[in-house]
Amino acid sequence: DAFPTILTSVRRDTWDPFQLNPIGAEKEKKKRCFILAQHLVAVIVGLLVLVSAVLSKGSLLVLCAMASPKSLEKNHDQQFYLLMLVFCLVMPNVLMFLKSLWKCAFKNFVSPNMKTMGIICLIEGLVSLGTSLLVLIVMPQFDVLTNLFITGGVCIVSSVLQIAFRLQKENWKIIFPICSLILVLTGYGLLASDYYVRASSYVGKETNENFVYVGVGILSSLLVSLNWWENPLKASNSIQDMLSELEGFRDFVFMITSILRIAIIGVVYAIYFAFIQQPHIDWSYFSHVPTQTLHLGISLFFLQAFTSAGCHWFGVVACKIHAVRVSFAIPVCFTVPAVLIVAVALFLTQAGNSSRVLEEVATANFTSFCSSLGSINNRNGTELILAEISNSICRTTLNSYYESWPLAMLATEGLCMWLGLLAATHYVWKIKIQRIERTSQLFVRRLYESAFIDQSLLLNTKIKVVRARNQDSKDELESCVIYLCATMWHETYDEMLKILTSMFRLDRYRGDPKEQHKDDFDFECHIFVDDAFQTEKDTEKRLTNEYVNNLIQVVIEVYRVFTNKEPDDVSIIETPYGGRLMFTMPEGNMLFFHLKDKQLIRNKKRWSQIMYMYYLLGWKGYLAKNPPKITRQNNPCRSSLISLDGESFGVVTHDNDSKRRFISEDNTYILALDGDTDFHPSAVILLVDRLRMYNNVGAACGRIHPTGMGPMVWYQKFEYAVGHWLQKTAEHVFGSVLCSPGCFSLFRGSALMDDNVLKRYTTKSTRAAEYVQYDQGEDRWLCTLLLQQGWRVEYNAASDAYTNAPQEFKEFYNQRRRWGPSTLANTLDLLHSGKETAQRNSSISMLYIAYQIFTVGSSILGPASVSLMIAGAFQFVFQMEGTLAIIVSIIPPVIYMLICFTCKTNFQISIAAILSVLYAFLMTASFFSIIGDMVIQQTFITPTGIFLVSMSILYLVTAILHPQEFGMIVYGLMYFICIPSGYLLLTIYTLVNMHNVSWGTRETNHDKAVTKRVGVLCDRSCKLCCWDMKCQVTQETENIVLQQIKNVVNPNVKGVPLKALENQESRHNISEVNILGTFFSESDDSVNKKADQRDYDDYNYGEKEEEVVPYGGECNSTKYKVHYWVNPVKTEFLKKLTYANLKRNLQEQVRYSLRNKDQDDLCEELVQMLTDEVNGELKDKVGPEDVLLDSQLEELQYALNETARRVLKTNRMERLEKRVKRAIEKTLIAPQVEKLTEEEKDFWLKLIERYLSPILDDKAHKEEVTRELKSLRNKAVFFYFILNVLWVVATFFLQVIGDTISIHIPKYFPNGTKSDDTMKVEPLSLMFLLSFAVLLLVQFLAMLYHRIYTLIHVVSYRSTEKEYKVNDDDGLMYENQIANGLVITSDDL
Asked: What angle do helix axes 1259-1297 and 1323-1360 make, rounded to 10 degrees?
């Protein structure tokens, strides 16, 4: 309770103690519901693995028993069950062939090495031969229990290879494969002994010929065990050249070997049973198989096939959710005991049901029961299966007339085989898996063996799991660095609060950058503020504007919330592009504000992205490969950036750059953000997982949630939900996401640095189409460049981010006016290069291109489709004729299009808003009319009814599968009634205004207004006849005129050169002087010329410089010449040195410095004594809001150091004195003003010169671009208009023709009875309806697939996420596998 008391006392030291506490700044905790759900999923998956494995193995054993010559079935029926066994062996190979064929045809194809392929085909052929001999020939001759046990011997080759290559790190572990080998050989010996006893005691009519089958069974088991040869060899790094070469064309090899295996299975079956086995196969029998046999055999086949595939898939899921032991190892390892228990239980149940043998059951003698099995007839399917199981068990020594002790030999055989398998696969229990793994990183082979499903899963698990992009198979992840880059453009205070709170949350999650993190990443935060400066009206000084001032206040406020103190380490740096503020976040990670001056560098989002990509990937990447020497800081003020460990925080940035030396571009990521994005650390880590798992993923985006209030936001909530639920998931599953939104997307550094990506992204728009594609939707264009270069873009539905959505109708329409044409332009560009892109990009196939063509066609015909839907609404509501309804429905869109061509933008939007409201009323009436019509018709089985009901069910099920977003379904009605506005009016507005390439949102005229009023002395205008006369005189004009007069009157007096004044005029954007129609202004060409001649080395753009003395300590000797904007910014951060703030900062700094020293009592004593010392020194000398002077700071520092020394000496803790003094020093040091290094300054000057110099287009060019944009607009409108008119006209004439070509569909009532009436549907409408339904169905199936893998990813993340545990003292402990002992108490936050 000490923390609230001290906090209250600190707050009482000032009259303004109140602060904001943004949502999400509280400490993260694991939600109990997620923990329960995680364990529940693990248990369910484990049960599914066990049940599917038992069913797979059990159904196979039943088929073997029923196909046995000694079964209770007729000979012909035995042949049919044997054929089902063949199908069971073939099924996995068919699936593997189809998957490999798909990848070779639509993904990538690499020509194989014939030698390697020949070796693989030989091995696969031997494996297939062994499988065929064992399952088709040997196992039908054996009993169920022997067949269950003999499959454990397929681990023998794996054990031999483990012994040969000594794969175990600890030498003693070699005992496992040795024991496995011994146990398996012992099992084989017991198998032969068991059959010798059976033959000699005449059990089950066994004969000596069974020894042949025993030998063939042992040989075939050895051949089958070759199936997993690759696993030990990969782990031993042997023949790595061949194995790495095999990875390149594995798909093609699997396709060929699948065909080979199927062929060998067929050949073995045909040769043996057609020519060797007696009696031979009667092929004619298969055309008239008895119904019961047919149904039973097919049922067993499908059960075995589906459960085998299901067991394999659930096993993969169990590993991916980090439940290897509970959900994978235990169920798979105990499959054989489980099947044994089930078989014995069924046998005992059958035996117990026979009253004649109850006594024999009690004495464990089953001879009478076994002899009675053959006399039971007229069994159903279940009884037949139970009888076959019992009959097969009766073939063991359990049915001996003599002694039953030989049964122990069979049990010992099974125990040896089972233990041998467990010993050979002991590594499964210790396997370490990173958060998200590819199946190829978990298992060596993609193909599972349906006949040996449990052995296949265990032996196929990699002995050493290859880490992400780590060919050395190390246990740890490769380090990565993440640059968070947010672009700001006129954000509000609350929006800035969101993004900074998110960054500070990530800082708290990451912790000290010097410590290792379990996710193994480092990060920096960069915020790029466009339009950060303005010219002061009176003094013409260039100062930071209100947006930067708000940002500074926000970062101070957020710092207080997270640490209860002011920012400690602040640096203010002048740059060629404006300025930079550098902060050290509470845990030691870095935060940068880049303040852009649009007079020095291009503004807007795309150029900010180019700016940070070149800076972070180009410049910092260059520094990483060519590290500069860190010069010793002679400035004593750098002591302000001393960390608790005595290292310079200036070195933190250098330290990050030095870490970058060991991090490749593949592991360098840029997280693109908007200035109002709100996210949690988990969202970032989930995106990082996607890029770590797949090397070809160039970008990944998350689920974007629009925030705000009002009808427009409600509409967008459901629109975003549907877009992510169905459209983005379909793109992810079938190909690649086309757009990774710039508000929250993670990009791979090597992808951005690839050819034709970043370099082309710097292209300046010069043509109309480029303005639309490049500048109106820069994030979509960047993704198009990545896709065309061969990179994949993915979507992670569990990575949630929140961003503000337009709340006003006008803002929404202007936003979509930018997005619509850009989306269409980039999609058409991708489709135009579809063939080349499909060849280069393995994620994009021609089928996916066809899918995109269909979706684009649907969107182009959207206005006509909506018009026809409105016509249907007129029919329902007003009972109009179909033709008249169509005519009436197209009148408003045509009128609105004419208005858009002739009227101003604001009027267009006003008309659109009015029409949207009217359409909303019509859609509401139509909705209830359709429901009423279904009630009147007493059926919903009509085209309209089926469509409405099916869409409602589809969206409802989709929402249920997104439980955290289920509330979005409420906004579905709002979305439905706004369809005409969103798909008809908005499309018209977007197309007609395509020539308008302004941003449209967050626009402000503040700076322009200031510029117009600067220095104006006289502004007069008048109209005389046809002449417009204007006289405008500014301060600079007056100076020029006075200078000319002085030169004329007194030419000997030396004054300021006219050229210098003109340069000054151009730099201050002086208004022209217009007198009687004569323009004394500079032409655009001269302005451009002067802009090109600007001396960027002296980037003060005409300002006077002032000397600024760094505040505090010994820094009085060092002076910097800085711009006017620096001092006001510095003044804000100097408030940390006020009396009230200083006390709070000192207390928190001391607590933080001693947080890991287990000296809580000493810490609180120090805090109390130092606080008393501050009160004694300052209480009656300064006010709570006064900033301390240098002399006061020096005296206070000396007094505090002495007090701390006395307290520590009294407690015999002198070893902590240096640490406490550093905390005191950090508290008393002021923010610093610095300059860039000459190297970085040169980089920025060259970057601006090449790519980012302000765009100054002349008037002629602007007019030319405007003409091109209008021409492009006209072509696009004409294209859209013609296609939509053709669609409407076709529908209209089909309505006119009527019954002639209409399709008559029978009408059914919900109870299934047929009505006498029929429903008439036009072919065109039916075709469109079916196409739309098929598209939605395909997207729905893709969503189901994506949901499953999202669940796997979420559960795996929850299993490995950072844990916060509250200790006994109500503190907060950070659980880290590597950095144990780092304790954060509640006082620290």
From this structure: 120
φ and ψ of 1125, to 5 deg: -70, -15
Nearest 5°: CA angle at 1129, between 637 and 513? 55
Q: Which of 360-374, 654-668, 901-915 has the highest mean pLDDT?
A: 901-915
Alpha carbon distance 897, 910 (integer Å): 13
CA nearest to 88, candidates 248, 322, 303 = 303
pLDDT in tens, 595-612: 999 999 998 899 999 999
Q: Alpha carbon of 829 to those of 740, 838, 1283: distances in Å?
A: 17, 13, 20
1292-1297-1300-1302 Cα dihedral, nearest 10 degrees:
20
DSSP string over 134-150: IIIIIGGGS-HHHHHHH
Tens digit of each residue's pLDDT (9 = 90 or more) over 1175-1195: 888 877 777 778 888 888 888
Supply the DSSP string of 926-985, one letter for each residue: HHHHHHHHHHHHT---SHHHHHHHHHHHHHHHHHHTSGGGGGGGGGHHHHHHTHHIIIII
- The values of phi and psi at residue 1319, to 5°, are -105, 135
Cα radius of gyration (the chain): 39
Beta carbons of 857 and 769 less than 8 angstroms apart: no
d(CA 630, CA 628): 6
Q: What's at 8, amino acid-wise?
A: T
d(CA 926, CA 948): 12
pLDDT at 1109 exceeding the cut of 50:
no
Task: Tell me, rounded to whole angstroms, the distance of Cα 1365 from its chain centroid.
Answer: 28
Task: Decide: residue 500, CB within 10 A, 0-12 exposed, 13-18 middle, 19+ buried.
Answer: buried
**In which residue are the tokens 């002349």 written?**
1258
> Sorting pLDDT into bands at 50, 70 and 90, what band is 1100?
very low
- What is the rounded average pLDDT of the residues 815-826? 92
Classify each residue of 563-602 as buried b or exposed e, where b means 16 or more C-beta atoms within 10 Å of its C-beta: bbbbbbbbbbbbbbbbbbbbbbbbbbbbbbbbbbbbbbbb
| Residue ranges of E strands in 478-569 | 480-488, 521-529, 533-535, 542-544
Q: How far is CA 1302 from CA 407, 933, 1306, in A?
A: 76, 21, 13
**Both tokens assigned to 1216:** 């902590």
Cis peptide before 279 (omega within 30 of 0): yes
Do 477 and 520 touch, CB atoms closer than 8 A? yes
681 Ramachandran zone, left/alpha/beta (phi>0; psi -120 to 50): alpha
Please report the pLDDT score of residue 552 as a whole number. 94
Per-residue DSSP letter, 1136: G
Q: Are 704 and 1317 in contact (CB under 8 A)?
A: no
User: How many residues make up the chain in this entry?
Assistant: 1389
pLDDT in tens, 677-690: 999 999 999 999 99
CA distance 640 to 328: 55
CA distance 1189 to 1170: 19
Residues 6 or more apart whose CB falls under 8 angstroms from that of 959 comprise 721, 725, 965, 966, 968, 969
Distance CA 160, CA 184 (A): 11
For the CA atoms of 907, 909, 914, 915, what is the dihedral angle to 10 degrees?
Answer: 110
b/e per residue 226-240 (b: at least 16 CB within 10 A): bbbebbbbbbbeeee
The residue type of 615 is Y
* pLDDT given at position 1167: 85
Nearest CA to 214 out of 268, 126, 141, 129 is that of 141
Q: Which residues sit opposite 486 in a β-bridge?
A: 527, 673
Nearest to 982 by CA among 1165, 859, 1070, 1140: 859
Give the integer Cα–Cα distance in Å for 1015 and 1017.
6
List the one residue out of 591, 589, 531 whose CA is nearest residue 555: 591
Position 1107 pLDDT exceeds 90? no
